[in-house]
Amino acid sequence: MSRISSIFSLVVLVVAGCQSNPNSEASKLNTDIQESTDSLMNRSKELALLTGKTLKGELMSAIQRGGVQEAINYCNVNALALTDSISKNKQVTIQRVAERNRNPENKLDDTSQEVFDSMKQAIQAGKKPEPIIVSSANKHVFFAPIRLEGACLSCHGTEDQIGKENLAIIQSHYPNDKAVGFQPGDLRGMWRIEL
Ligand code: HEC
Known about the structure:
Blueprint lengths: L1 H18 L5 H66 L2 E5 L12 H15 L7 E4 L4 E8 L5 H4 L2 H4 L1 H10 L13 E8 L1
Antiparallel strand pairs: 1-4, 2-3, 3-4
Helix pairs in contact: 2-6
The protein binds heme C.
Heme C (HEC) binds next to helix 2, helix 4 and strand 4.
């Protein structure tokens, strides 16, 4: 009886010892990795938010200047230049990528396609697609969903919503445009930020 109880207390000691030792190398490493992943995630979210706000602001003022037509032409010339200049300024690579893209420069690579598919599946299952960081040996890549909103329909909705004239302007800039026919809530694309 006493042997059993002393084995029992030994086990308790060992288990408790493991758990109450936050300074062990392994648990410190885990905490460090967790902290750096959290801060990468926060930093990336901020960058996506900043870039999104900048693009939307520019889009709105172009529409105010000369309607949707002006805004299409403005985006054609400036969208990539804007994301590139924020990237340079922040020393990261910020992109908007999409399966059904307008500008073929924004196409998905293999990893982006996998992440895109999983976000699409989440939406189909009625869940909210979440931002994610895919890490490999020498880089971290952040992805976050870009969902379609009502305000996007004038350039990414149905033919009727875009209108014949504006559709013709879009097609003149983008002969292989695949970014039409979206509905609010659809997964329009993703932020891709290489850190
Ligand atoms: C005035 C027209 C217009 C409106 C409104 C508009 N877009 Fe676009 N969008 C464009 C053009 C033009 C491009 C291509 C830009 C380029 O050449 O890089 C584009 C590209 C994109 C891309 C990059 C991927 C790709 O297909 O090339 C995403 C993502 C995107 N739009 C999402 C949105 C969302 C979300 C909204 C609403 C909040 C929106 N857009 C509203 C015209 C518009």
